[in-house]
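Summary: Need help interpreting a holo structure output

Steps to reproduce:
1. Submit the protein chain below together with the SMILES for zinc ion.
2. Request a joint structure prediction with the ligand placed.
3. Inspect the structure token block that comes back.

Expected: a single structure record containing both the chain and the bound molecule.
Actual: see attached output.

Input attached:
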Amino acid sequence: MRKKSSFIYIGLILMGVMGLLNIEVKNPNQVYAQKPTMKKLIVIDPGHGGRDVGAIVDEALEKHINLQIAHKVKYKLSQQGYDVVMTREQDEEVSLEQRVKLSNESNAQLFVSIHQNAIEDNVTHGIETWFESGKSASKQFAQFIQEQTSLATGAKNRGIKDYTSLYVTRNTHAPSVLVECGFITSDYERSLLSSDRYQEEIAEGIVEGINLYFQSEPI
Ligand SMILES: [Zn+2]
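--- attached output ---
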């Protein structure tokens, strides 16, 4: 007698569970809401590293500034729920081929290379964002990055520039940009670029540009 009633009891529970499942499947909104949200993967590429120091003026080494800004971008993106892969985490040499391979093999949604500009004089300053000519998604992404980094820092907006021979922006499958955060050759800008506060502002601008790019993307 006791066994039989417990069978009936289990049967009722099973029917109840199945009923719940049924309701969920029939309600498309509920099913959609329960779908796990896909994390977005961003590759951050601090330019140069190791023996390749990039531009150098006095004690300011481009490779160090690139890495410091990249770490700040990584931290902020992770805080907002993005997955982040860095092409280098420390002061080491990484070839351009390795950087592109890492981005393409990880199926990154966006690729951001971080550099500092250099020129013959010591007064030219401001931010530029470079992208591969003919890649429309990269151009759109470059516009967001350029606007937001200029806004966040108050730096001179030197606009977006299209190129046809930049290895990383040409060969990455993901929409990609190369941000020239400022001129290491400018006496005025070099001290800003070396400061923690200014680097934070650049990082904020890059993260905001990434957010706006995804918000504008047609679903
Ligand atoms: Zn560089």
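--- end attachment ---

Reviewer comment: The mean pLDDT is 88. Residues 75 and 163 are 29 Å apart (CA to CA).
Status: needs-info
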